[in-house]
Amino acid sequence: MSRQTVRGLWGLGIVLLCASCTTTEPGGGHAEQPVEAAASMPEGPAPALFSTVWDMTEYLSADGALQPRLEGSMVHLEISLGGASGSAGANKFFGSVTLDGSKIRISATGSTMMMGTPELMAQENRFLQHVQDARMYQIVGEELRLLDGEGRVLLKFKPRVEPALTSNVWNAVGVNNGKGGVASILPGTEITIQFRDDGHVVGSSGCNSFMGTYETEGGSIAFGPLAGTRKTCAVPQGIMEQESAFLQSLENSSHWNIRDDALELRDASGSLQAKFTIGEPRL
């Protein structure tokens, strides 16, 4: 197995692990070659394999038994003709894919180099190894299974169902500060937003409550005029500046997306304006 370092992806260093990807040069030498993804749609694979974000539910542990994913960890896989990608828990990963009927080979896998808890990293290492060891796949009902060459189930997945934009209260975790960056929410403050089915939006901008209207079409979003209470809060320091930045971020937003249970609002250039996670539902 050869090892290469690739830079400039995900904004971090990447470690590329490549198995069986050498070619013989004249004179008996070997030159490393990347494994290419399948160039055309193979015969046989179910369309759902390509159109689904697969959340891992179980993995084969070192003792040979299937073990459930660590509670609270996010591990998922996406497969396309361009390759495979996803999250291994602490790190994002990518790979190139070859498919032939029910046979699968993710023959080159790389990942970012973040660290998590020992338990999370142990699970991640098993997951990434299993991804590389997979030789077959099955879709049983709505469950995806990756198997090794002997038919042992290495990994089990279920289709991800992302939360709906409406009927949830979204808690902001980051807001564009208007200076080219996204700042975390100040400790001790809470910014929320709730999109209602009737086209109205309500929430808290940190100090004040607000309400207004919104319209969506596909991944586009437009907010109407927003009205709110007019309190002034002194603590924590910077809360009013944060509130102003949040309201401005809504005005700037033109696109929305929900991924990994998080809502992102972005402007026309793709710059992140605000990011939210799900809070407690309200009547």
Please describe what this structure looks like.
- With 283 residues, the protein is mostly beta strands.
- It has 2 domains: 2-159, Beta Barrel (Lipocalin); 169-278, Lipocalin, CATH 2.40.128.
- Helices cover 11% and strands 45% of the residues.
- It is built from 2 helices and 23 strands.
- The protein has helices at 118-133, 239-252; strands spanning 2-9, 12-18, 22-24, 30-32, 54-60, 66-68, 76-80, 83-87, 92-100, 103-111, 136-140, 143-147, 153-159, 169-176, 182-184, 192-195, 200-204, 209-217, 220-223, 227-228, 255-259, 262-266, 272-278.
- Strands 1, 2, 5, 6, 7, 8, 9, 10, 11, 12 and 13 form an 11-stranded antiparallel sheet that branches. Strands 14, 15, 16, 17, 18, 19, 20, 21, 22 and 23 form a 10-stranded antiparallel sheet that branches. It has a two-stranded antiparallel ribbon with strand order 3-4.
- A hairpin with a 2-residue loop joins β21 (255-259) and β22.
- The longest helix has 16 residues, at 118-133.
- It starts with a strand and ends in a 5-residue tail after the last strand.
- 27% of the residues are buried.
Q: How many DSSP-defined strands?
A: 23
Tally of individual helices: 2
Mean pLDDT: 83
The backbone outline, from C-alpha atoms, is elongated
Low-confidence stretches: 1-47
Question: What is the CATH class of the largest domain?
Answer: Mainly Beta
Summarize the structure.
By secondary structure, the chain is mainly β. The protein has helices at 118-133, 239-252, and strands spanning 2-9, 12-18, 22-24, 30-32, 54-60, 66-68, 76-80, 83-87, 92-100, 103-111, 136-140, 143-147, 153-159, 169-176, 182-184, 192-195, 200-204, 209-217, 220-223, 227-228, 255-259, 262-266, 272-278.
